[in-house]
Design brief:
This protein has 403 residues and is mainly β. 10% of the residues lie in helices and 28% in strands. The protein is built from five helices and 26 strands. The longest helix has 15 residues. It comes from Centaurea solstitialis. It is found in: Secreted, Cell wall. This is Cell wall hydroxyproline-rich glycoprotein. InterPro entries: Leu-rich_rpt, Leu-rich_rpt_typical-subtyp, LRR_dom_sf, LRR_extensin-like_regulator, LRR_N_plant-typ.
Length: 403
């Protein structure tokens, strides 16, 4: 961000306050900046300037004239944070108790660093208010803190929709809004954050489908679990470069896209507690860096893909609480790093020898509630027979046997 002073228009009132107006109108801001710096007027002005600032990104507040700030960046930060504080309805841990006065960098949860474009100017580079149980809305102009590289507010009681102005965080790398009460659709404004690597929106009340553009972003971690997202996964999920994707406890449905096998850097994939159907794709065997794979509590059918034997780094595999059938394969139970393997509450009818007596004593296999006649804690024949004997259609969840 080039000089936050670009966003300041300063006028002296007859009282002991300064009234500041912040705007993101480029032509207006550029002219004001040149006057502040004593530069000549722009010789090539916009031939069709818009004299009115964008009302969505314009606001005014007053600052006590007795307060002094090292630079205009921190003055603007003071105004933004004070506006945000006014919208807080509860602060039971008193995290914001010292959000007073001109020393913005001493505020709880506010971290300052040298500006990325001016090493002589300090700026607000991070906000971390995790676990504060703070209630209220995000400040409507919080995105004006354009030098933020991390914004963490998890485990609070913020609510409402995620404001569009977050798209102004042009150097933000970490966004954690988890464990709050945010509502609405997936916030497409986060797709406009060019530097974002870590996205955590879990434990909110967000709903609707995921935009395909999410998986085209250069994200390392995507946490969207425990929301109300729905619909099928975008077919381009395989474009993601993420190492961790967690989409559990939502309402996703449909088949797992075969493109999933393209995510060569993926280490953890957790899709549990949804409504996924169809068969597990053989392409899962291409994810050779996986350490955790969890498809539990869905409506998956068919058999375990033999290609899973290529997952040499896999430590945990959970396919429990589905409608999978057939044998539990030696090649899976023999994976060198596998320690936890759950097939509970499916319709498997046989454990191959390496699963019956694992070579590794530390390997735990949970095989309860299946259809293995010689094992304890299994389903009855009446429950097993209709599922085990019906034809499987991997494109549609199942095709019932005609009676």
């Amino acid at each position: 961000m080039k000089g936050l002073c670009c966003y300041l228009f300063l006028s002296l009132s007859i009282f002991s306050f300064f009234s500041l107006t912040f705007s993101l109108n480029k032509a207006f801001a550029a002219a004001i900046t040149r006057r502040h710096l004593g530069l000549p007027e722009d010789p090539n002005p916009n031939p069709n300037p818009n004299p009115d600032p964008d009302p969505e990104f314009t606001f005014e507040f007053q600052i006590d004239a007795r307060l002094t700030f090292p630079n205009l960046r921190l003055k603007m930060a003071y105004g933004v944070l004070q506006e945000w504080k006014k919208g807080i309805s509860a602060d039971p841990s008193n995290m914001l108790s010292n959000w007073e006065g001109e020393d913005v960098c001493s505020y709880n949860g506010v971290f300052c660093e040298k500006s990325p474009d001016d090493p002589n100017a300090m700026t607000v580079a991070g906000i971390d208010l995790n676990h504060g149980e703070i209630a209220g809305n995000l400040g409507p102009h919080i995105g004006m803190l354009g030098d933020l590289s991390l914004f963490h507010i998890n485990s609070n009681r913020f609510n409402g929709t995620i404001p569009k102005i977050l798209s102004k965080f042009k150097i933000l790398t970490e966004l954690d809004l988890s464990n709050n009460g945010f509502t609405g659709q997936f916030p497409n404004n986060v797709l406009e954050l060019p530097k974002l690597k870590y996205l955590d929106l879990r434990f909110n009340n967000l709903e609707g489908p995921l935009p395909p553009q999410l998986f085209d972003k250069d994200l390392d971690a995507i946490f969207l679990n425990n929301n109300k997202f729905s619909g099928p996964l975008p077919e381009n999920i395989g474009n993601s470069k993420a190492s961790v994707i967690v989409l559990s406890n939502n309402r996703f449905k449909g088949c797992i896209p075969k493109s999933i096998g393209q995510m060569k850097g993926l280490e953890e994939l957790i899709l549990s507690n949804n409504e996924f159907s169809g068969c597990l794709p053989e392409e899962l065997g291409l994810l050779e860096n996986l350490t955790v794979l969890d498809f539990s509590n869905n409506q998956l059918v068919g058999t375990l893909p033999v290609a899973l034997d290529r997952l040499k780094q896999l430590e945990k595999l959970d396919v429990g609480r589905n409608q999978l059938i057939g044998k539990v394969l030696d090649c899976i139970c023999s994976l060198p790093k596998l320690l936890n393997f759950s097939i509970t509450d499916n319709y498997f009818d046989c454990l191959e020898p390496a699963c019956e007596k694992p070579v590794k004593a530390e390997l735990v296999i949970d095989n309860k509630e299946n259809c293995m006649p010689d094992k304890p804690d299994q389903k009855t024949v009446d429950k097993c027979s209709p599922v085990v004997n019906r034809p499987i259609d991997c494109k549609n969840r199942v095709r019932e046997t005609k009676r």
